[in-house]
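To: structure desk
From: M.T.
Subject: fold request, one chain
Message: Could you run this one when you get a chance? Sequence is below, nothing fancy, just the single chain.
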Amino acid sequence: MKKTLLIVMAIFPLLGSTQNNSVKLTLTPAMVLTNNFGINYERKFTDYFSANLRVNISSKKAVPFNRFATNILGDILDSAGVNSDVLNTKFISYGGSLQLRFFPAKEALKGFYVAPYFGFQAGKMNPFTFDFPDGNDPSIKHGGEVNASFLFLGGGLGIGNQWVTDSGFTLDVLWLGLGVGTNSILLRGEDYSNGSVDYAKVNGEVTTFVTEQKDIIDQLRMDVSSTYDASSIDIIAKHAFPYVKILNISLGYSF
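Reply: Done. Structure tokens follow.
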């Protein structure tokens, strides 16, 4: 029994000093804006390389920069019959990212690193109400709702530093990351009238709206299209979007 105890006591310090794994919580400016919470797991593979995986989820909150968005899009939405208050609608999102880290000093988990990163973010807004015109009499409106969701995919390259104390306390700062991705936004409209809405006509109105607002849509570098069937209409907007990371601070424990 004494020999077993001595062996265990000898092994634990070795495990503590190896520090091949790290668990961290992340806080970034973007996360503050969206009430986002991120958890990281980093694994050392060689003296030069590690991989850092992060998952995150946001609580319900209004669209980031909603006042700025309202100033730009408010009049356009209102003119199209969409209440611009939709920009104050709550939303929830989740995502994940993977970093492949290279440590030039050959002491992975510690020191300066260069990290290509890849990630996604998906989310949806609470449905908002919308009045659809009757297929035969446009003066008649049928109540319905619009569901909005988005998906962002992207990648980039970042630089950072990580400090790990002998006790395992870890401070990880990704100073800056520059990249690009694609953001896809889906608006799905459905009414409650059991077939009284002519969605072909609604689709034509969407096409006309996109044509009339072409200059603004081009400025936003968006590609907008729409599809429909007998019970709903989908409006899809896609555009390139910066995937920038600034001052991503993570605190945790390495073991």
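Reply (cont.): Residues 19-254 form one domain. Let me know if you need anything else for the meeting.
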